[in-house]
Design goal:
The chain is of the alpha+beta class. The protein is built from 19 helices and ten strands. A four-stranded mixed β-sheet has the order 2-1-4-5, with no helix packed on it. A four-stranded antiparallel β-sheet has the order 6-7-3-8, sandwiched between helices. It is globular. The two termini are 41 Å apart.
Amino acid sequence: MMKQLLSRENLLTALKRVEKNKGSHGVDGMSVKTLREHIMTNWDSIRQQLEDGTYKPSPVRRVEIPKPNGGVRLLGIPTVTDRFIQQAIAQILTPIFDPMFSEHSYGFRPNRRGHDAVRKAKGFMREGKRWVVDLDLEKFFDKVNHDKLMGLLAKDVEDKTLLKLIRSYLESGIMINGLETINEQGVPQGGPLSPLLSNIMLHELDKELEKRNLHFVRYADDCNIYVSSKKAGLRIMESITKFMEEKLKLKVNKDKSTVDRPWRRKFLGFSFTSQFEPRIRVAKESMKKVKQRIREFTSRSKPLPMEYRIEQLNQYLIGWVGSFSLADTPSVFSSLDEWIRRRLRMCLWKQWKKPQTKVKRLLTLGAPKVKAYEWGNSRKKYWRIACSPILHRTLDNAYWQTEGLKSLKERYSLLRHT
């Protein structure tokens, strides 16, 4: 397998993938832009170390990402050289392990995505599974037992040199404030290899759930089991928690795990309606997050050019609509459109500053002279005036369209019909 790993075709594919994904630098400060040159210059020695089993990965750089509900997610960013080697390993292991994985597993797999997992959950609800066992693993990526994971890998990977290399990545240190600490457990998030290793570890959970004929959906460490009653859910929660903690050496977060109605929980940023025919909707937490980002782009305390605001909004929101186009609730996108336009009107009103400037601009936009003087000299607050009839007429949808603002509703409709 090391021969396959070090083949020219596999290495070139890995290099192109790392370059395409870009990403931040590791502890050595090397950027993706200089990776190709570095590999060409030093490849002979790196290859020799890989073949001899003496290659030693660099420590990962610790990065803390704030979570929406508080706390932080710990990422370990490998050097670009180690990302390249990890990508090469992932490319030869994926064809071996992916065909074994459960059809109910959707995270970080070829030709599968989060939308497929949410659709599957909706299907279970249609079948009458109106209770969900929402399992939350406590710091899963930081708690993976190395011996257990290597044992699972060794069942299908016989190449001892490759196993030793993978183990060295699991045990590579973590650099925090210039000091290296030993990594005795966990799979650092941030490298190309960690998603595959996490799926290999949690495949044992999938097999157990399938053996019990349970209806479940798993995306990485997010696992939802759909049942017909709360009593059944509580029984399954207890037995599966015992299985995960005793067999897989993983800890279930009992404070965040629960048995509840699916429409009271969120799954991959989505939730559901409680109607007889379930509908997918954007979760409240996801709405709070997108509104917070919009507030940052449309803060009236920031003296930004309107062109820049609209450019940043378009760039962020087009991607956001793509992520949430699965929702069956088009009104959400219409209301967001209205709210965004009101915030932009507020920014523009403040940008005009002086009363005479406001009057002049309103007249230019076709407002009646009396109304232009009345509102131009108004002492009402910015947010109140942003919703006034005169700004609705002068700074209407057509105005913002000519300024380049993209409509979320139109984008949503386009995605739903393609």
